[in-house]
Amino acid sequence: MKYLLATAVVAALITTPAAAQVKVYGPGGPAPAVREAAAQFEKDTGIDIEVVSGPTPQWIENARKDADVIFSGSDTMMTDFVRALPTALRQTDVQPLYDRPAAILVRKGNPAKIKGFRDLLRGDLDVMVVEGAGQDGLWEDLASRAGGIGFLRKLRPRIGVFAANSAEAREKWIAEPGIDAWIIWGIWQTANPAIADQVAIERDIVLYRPMAVATTTSSDQRAEAQAFTAFLASKTGADIFRRHGWRSPSEAHGHERARR
User: Fold this and answer.
1) Collapsed DSSP state (helix, strand, coil) of residue 122
2) What are the phi and psi torsion angles at 92 (to 5°)?
3) What are phi and psi of 47, to 5 degrees?
4) CB 44 within 8 Å of CB 7
5) Phi/psi of residue 163, each to 5°?
6) pLDDT tens figures, 82-96
7) pLDDT digits (tens, 9 = 90+) for 128-164
């Protein structure tokens, strides 16, 4: 309903077929879903959406100049964006939309026969983790849930690569075939099926973190930007994100009920 109302407002504002371009910035993880949503939104409304994604240092300066919408890969990441763009973003405008589970990416065919997170202590597996870019503390939180400080002490020496962000981790994964397991969000395997398979993390351990979206207060296309964020939150938007490995609020609620 919000999407329909927002697009009705935009339709009243647009006087020519070519509306001003809406600039959307954020990290690489949610980008495939955001781009598919942008393409559908453009088809529906004629509003041009440009999605710029990747590690924050690559786009943050441009975002300070012309961002209309910012999306994040975790709530802590969005909080960092609010701090980085204090005149353009407000915490009260942030809307968490979908979340996704952590997972273990393995080599095609899973030659190491990894079955779950606790299995990472088996043999002499070489593990990679991401420290930063919305995954601060992810691997150690998983380790704590798997077996506390004892598990963490055993796992840490097996971590051969501490990547600064997911893009760097992907490069390392391709360049260093000796890495057996990569702890990251499952959406990265969905987006890169040719380079990795995915092993689910045990349900009593697995963690989810959300992506969020916010329209900037400095936007010159605020109505169009708000229409796009409403579209992201709509049923069509949810269907798109689901195809990319994300979970909607209704699915999360059902998952919690199943756990009880």
Assistant:
1) coil
2) -70, -15
3) -85, 130
4) yes
5) -75, 145
6) 999 999 999 999 999
7) 999 988 899 999 999 999 999 999 999 999 999 999 9
